[in-house]
Write a structure and sequence with these properties.
Blueprint: E1 2-4, E2 7-9, E3 12-14, E4 21-26, E5 31-37, H1 41-58, H2 63-79, H3 81-92, H4 96-120, E6 124-127, E7 130-136, E8 139-143, H5 149-163, E9 166-170, H6 177-188, E10 196-198, H7 203-211, E11 218-222, H8 225-236, E12 241-245, E13 251-254, H9 260-272, E14 284-288, H10 292-304, H11 323-338, E15 342-345, E16 363-366, H12 372-375, E17 382-388, H13 391-399, E18 403-404, E19 407-410, H14 414-423, E20 430-431, E21 444-445, H15 454-459, E22 462-468
Parallel strand pairs: 1-5, 8-9, 8-11, 9-10, 11-12, 13-14, 13-19, 14-17, 16-17, 19-20
Antiparallel strand pairs: 2-3, 4-5, 6-7, 7-22, 15-16, 18-21
Bound molecules: nicotinamide-adenine-dinucleotide.
Amino acid sequence: MRNYTQFYIDGQWVDPIAPRTAQVVNPATEEVSGTISLGTAADVDKAVAAARRAFATFGETSAKERLDLLEAILAEYLKRETELGEAVSEEMGAPMSLACGFHTLLGKGHLSTAIEVLKDFKFEEQRGPTLIRKEPIGVCGLITPWNWPMNQTCVKIFPALAAGCTMILKPPQLAPYSAQILAEILHDAGVPAGVFNMVQGKGSEIGTALSTHEDVDMISFTGSEPVGVQIQKDAADTVKRVGLELGGKSAWIVLDDASLAANVAAATGGMMGNSGQTCSAGSRLLVPSARMDDAIAAATEAANGVTVGDPKGNFAMGPVVSKSQYEIIQGYIEKGIEEGAQLIAGGPGKPEGLDKGYYVKPTVFVGTNDMVIAREEIFGPVLVIIGYDDVDHAVEIANDSNFGLGGYVSGEDLDAARAVSRRMRTGAIWVNGGFDFHAPFGGYKRSGNGREWGEHGFAEYLEVKAVIGWNPA
Ligand code: NAD
């Protein structure tokens, strides 16, 4: 059992001002795995005051001092990587191979990327009579979701630290363990008191206290669209900067010259990864209508081949994060059947033999883009295959979405695939796969307004100052 009932404020582990706890449930067993404290606005005030005090000196540190600090954090991170992975698996149900693999690798990658960006970043530039200076924005409230806990926290904390900001992290209530260990790592690495603070608790209390706080300069939020909208409203009165990384309903276009079976299998397997709880997952798979039968065969085989079970065992997919998430996903599967989509794999209920734990069957429908299952973010292992007539039709379907987070194009003719990527209205597009920590990540439309990862993510934490007359004429 984990007992994480203290917050990290001003360089110390402290008790909440008003003691109140909540239990954390292991999604694989449905049993309580530990306890956290739920903070209040008073804890947030304390953390913000510490961050404001610390900013006076940390905001003035040199890039070299911050590089040394980030290197020290990396050394501590590497020592505790397995522990972080175990915490991720326990809190949100990712298989151990994934939690101790890609989950922790993402955190480490954002840390290393922040180091690389900071090494080369030019904070000052002279243009004619003017000096243009990039300065840290100040005190940041970082609000994160549970689905890729290390990715979401590290993609905010490390660029913010690299920029010279101070911060208050509010981790997700469903997945609070890895953030606690991360706070220990930052402490052990010698992050100065008040630079990093962490208060656990409910979004509606801790998150709101941060968004409305007079002395918070910026909120960086990753999570659902409705909460993002609320945060923007809450932050409006204090005119703070708000970076939103929200949901998605990303399309994967398999062009006619692509290997259909291989790409449909890859897209289906990809959709089931992390139990479908990935904001940029290719949840709408667009294939040529004329080849739908082959696509169905490949997707069915791929989905049925995804093994589901105990995160500690050798399975591809674990449970989804919580009972309520399980029920939401079941609702969408029922909805898909009700609205006439063709169910070709999976379906309602739990996989055979998995009565305990929030396990969902890897599910694939063939449907149309007007169906609810093709329009709303399900955030579970549910794929919708949609047929298209020609490339223009494929692009039209892909762009016919309120979201614009990710996109995928597969095709042998690279120029043709690139041309399609230009026409898709989303923040990130993968042409025949690939991975890049320096590529900016964020959404068009209702998928958000910010960019994280690499130099663009770093820039989110900077203000721009013009000093006119720096060079007298
Ligand atoms: P969520 O919006 O319910 O919660 C996210 C965080 O916001 C949590 O820490 C929560 O406690 C807090 N919160 C809740 N209400 C709040 C309020 N009123 N004010 C301030 N904070 C509040 O999202 P979730 O269920 O944790 O995560 C899933 C969502 O996150 C999905 O929609 C997914 O697409 C999205 N997501 C987006 C990205 C991206 O980079 N675009 C990445 C991962 C996840």
